[in-house]
Amino acid sequence: MLPFKSTRFALFTALAALSASVSSAQMLINGAGATFPQQIYTKWFDEYQKIDPSVRFNYQGIGSGGGQKQILAETVDFGASDGPMSDDNLAKAPRTLWHIPTVAGAVVVSYNLTGNPQLNLDGPTLASIFLGTITKWNDPAIAGQNPDVKLPADDIVVVHRSDGSGTSFIFTDYLSNVSADWKQKVGKGTSVSWPVGLGGKGNAGVAGQVKQTPGAIGYVELAYAHQNKLPFATLKNASGVYMSATIDSVTAALAAATIPEDFRFSMVNSPGIAAYPICGTTWLLVYAEQKDHAKGEKLVQFLKWAYSDGEKFAAGLDYAPLPEAVVKRALDRVQSIKY
Amino acid sequence: MPGPGSRAPDIAFKWVAALAASMIIVLIVLVGWQLYAGSRMSLSKFGPSFLWSSEWDPVQDKYGALPFIFGTLVSSLLALLIAVPLGVATAIFLTELAPQKLRQPIVMAIEMLAAVPSVIFGLWGIFVLIPWLRDHLFVWLRHYFGFLPLFQGPIYGVSMLAAGIVVAIMILPIITSISREILRSVPNLQREAAYALGATRWEVLKIAVLSYARRGLFGAAVLGLGRALGETMAVTMVIGNRPQISASLFAPGYTLASVIANEFTEATSDLYLNSLFELGLVLMGVAIMVNIAAQVMLKSMTGSGPIKVN
Amino acid sequence: MAASPYLPTERFARWRKAKSTAVTCVLVLCALAVIAPLFLVIYFLIVHGSSSIDINFFTQLPKPTGEDGGGMANAIVGTMELLAMASIVGVPLGVLGGIYLAEYGSDKANDWLRFAADVLNGVPSIVWGMVVYLMLVVPFKTFSAYAGGVALGLMMVPLVMRTTEEVLILVPQSYREAALALGVARWKVIMVIVVRTALKGIATGVIVALARIAGETAPLLFTALGNNFWNHNLKEPIAALPLQIFAYAISPYDDWHRQAWAGALVLMALILALNITVRILSRDRTHNH
């Protein structure tokens, strides 16, 4: 006997709602991880639901670090990361874990300054800003590269990620490449010990913080800057050319990269003359042998769809599709997933 | 007439009830044990130095709790500094001054404030409070009190002070309502005696009421502290999430609860995860000790009468 | 000042009066400062929330990241489901525990149990999330609605237990004695007579507990996780209003900010509805306090 009527009623209605929803059971495949590709992934899953209504993909952007950890703990069906997993972490996996590259993208340096001026920056300046050695917007190092911009004497508010992030990995990988100081003091990783700044959760959190805070500077995936009309800097690449982040300049960086057998590669500070310097690819983390036959089958079907039809959504959301040769290799890998 | 056999369901029922009641103890042990088990690796690796090391560097796999302990204490104490005077004053107003007609609506409004979830305070903090603090209050503070290290340095909006203010708002209801209970438990005889001596209202308050209730009010403050320490969502949204120890209240900070909220699902190395569990252990230890202290203080104040805590 | 009370001049009496009035003014200002935030929060909730609520909000699923439109239908239902599951865990444990405290148990043991319940009540909610993650998410290898429900349910236990005890004690001893004298078994006396008499009070306690946990976000982060779709299986992640509000509030999208306000308004309305129910239920009990 339940102790009283009103709650009994509430419970009954709630349970009725529950059983109604349970009866129409659809398969749910859970994934979690990077927020860098969240826009295209959620778009894919939304579109794919129309093609195969019997399955839904639930994707939670908890950060690349989270994607790696949760796939290792097998609490999700696939992980997502835009920093490759370390050898140590891969060794912890209970079974073979594969990196399946999906799209490439750019990490842009966005800022919140009155009038939204277009800034030029080079790697060492960027490193100094994030190291906290440059603290004012009108610092000569910034002003020297932007003679036409009237810079305020305000404090620079650095914004970085507070969660373990592949976007952070790509960004710190780049800074380590261009600044010995950064490499020695901070290094690269999905979570690092930031010398200065505020923490924001997810790409969305950093973009939100930059948008809310005058004088802020932060790094986000290109689409987040575009959608929120945040200006972003043109960066000096390895060949000394100031390049803006576009699909073309990401594709140029991809073209110059060599991609190993296990698909774990870095493409920051690319030597390509038309390449944007802070680019990265993003991976799904998938076990080579799927435990659940039905889920494994659906996952493979989805991945095949993503490579054939899904990639066409990439450009519209500011991601660069992978070169055909890479797609072919990735498809081979996908087809060898056992379930 | 019941035969001797009908004792069996009676005994069974008693045991089921006893089992349910003992779940309370089981849960406390379980929580403590899980946190301890989860943090064993960092406990043995760092030992007690975990508590006073200020490094939090997942790349080097080195972890220390100091910035988070600092952030938790500073934001909570700031909150107390704001909430205790306001809350106690409101309680005095309600029990000693307010016309009968006003009391009920004010009490109701305060109860409503207590019902607002943390995440809504966070939302309000981001879009309403922070812009106002950044553009007005903080600028004003820096202008007039900028000679103090507390109010120096760049203004971001999100900051230790913002967190303190939001937490203060969140603990105001509990401090006010418990202070009110305490003041109501002061015998009327005390007040009447003071009035009979010709004391003014303020003198009655000071001599008869406050000195009598001092200990209980302190207990109310400590209970508020217990609440403040564990506040998670609203703090995460307004404190800036940066593990640093800074003299300036305009600087961002980080608390035990908010670093767990941000990093728990994504700690990639075992030691990293263990360290987060140890932060949880520290947080729970401190929160429970503060709570016990408050309970003890309030109990001795009000005798056996139950103090409503929720 | 300390020496002056022995100089009863008129000037001094006026000074004392003035001081008392000043203190009164300060107290009034403080009371205003305490209720001001409430009105500021409610004001902005209504202003931003009501202009953001539309029919889509209640009927649609969230859109892909960065696209405008969509709603929180799944999160609203998800919160209801989580509350139902929390009740299934928290109500029986809390009510039975309360019965033990009120009807059985020695004074000494009860003192300790009450004390323990108050201590448990002080465990930060984020800690519940960590513990349930270890207990249910890691072993079963999935984030789930169950885990979220259990985390919230365990938080309810001490609350429900204490209020149940309080209202059971108010049931007159003569009721129990009369029934026992008729030879009714004790457990029947408790369940049929004592609990039924105190039913309203117990219900009030449960609803107070539900109102308290309905807005909890921290314990759900590592348990329920969130879901962009309907939850069709409680063994899978589930959406919840507080989670969705959090995710949308810290995002950069204006449309998500709009929906965060709308979600906050709906969540607040739900919690207020629970509190109003409590008021109605306890109206005829207020004389006891």
Range of helix content of chain C: over 70%
Write down the oligomeric state.
heterotrimer
CATH topology of the largest domain in chain A: D-Maltodextrin-Binding Protein, domain 2
Q: What is the overall silhouette of chain A?
A: elongated
Average predicted confidence as pLDDT of chain A: 88
Structural class of chain C: mainly alpha
Distance between the ends of chain C: 40 Å
Mean pLDDT of chain C: 89
Strand content of chain C: under 5%
Helix content of chain A: 40-55%
Order of helices and strands of chain A: HEHEHEHEEHHEHHEHEHEEHEHEH
**Unreliable stretches of chain A:** 1-5, 19-24
The count of domains of chain A is 2
Rg of chain A, Å, rounded? 22 Å
List keywords for this structure.
heterotrimer, A: 339 residues, alpha/beta, D-Maltodextrin-Binding Protein, domain 2, 2 domains, nine-stranded mixed beta sheet, 13 helices, 40% helix, 19% strand, C: 289 residues, mainly alpha, MetI-like fold, 12 helices
Give a short summary of the structure.
Chain A is of the alpha/beta class and 339 residues long.
Q: How would you describe this structure to a colleague?
A:
The complex is a heterotrimer of chains A (339), B (310) and C (289). The relative contact order of chain A is 0.18. Chain A is 40% helix and 19% strand. With 339 residues, chain A is an alpha/beta fold. Chain A is elongated. In chain A, α5 (123-131) packs across α7 and α12 (293-308) runs antiparallel to α13. Chain B is an all-alpha fold. A two-stranded antiparallel sheet of chain B has the order 1-2. In chain B, α1 packs across α11 (270-302), α3 (66-97) runs parallel beside α6 (160-184) and α8 runs antiparallel to α11 (270-302). The longest helix of chain B has 33 residues, at 270-302. The two termini of chain B are 45 Å apart. The model of chain B is unreliable at 1-5 and 304-310 (pLDDT under 50). Chain C starts with 9 loop residues before the first helix and ends in an 8-residue tail after the last helix. The longest helix of chain C is centred in the N-terminal third of the chain and has 43 residues, at 10-52. Chain C is an all-alpha fold and 289 residues long. The chains are: A alpha/beta (339), B mainly alpha (310), C mainly alpha (289). Chain A binds chain B through residues 32, 62-70, 88-89, 155, 157, 162-164, 186-194, 197-201, 209, 212-213, and chain B through 55-60, 126, 130-131, 134, 154, 156-158, 236, 240-242, 252, 254, 262-263, 265-269, 272-273.
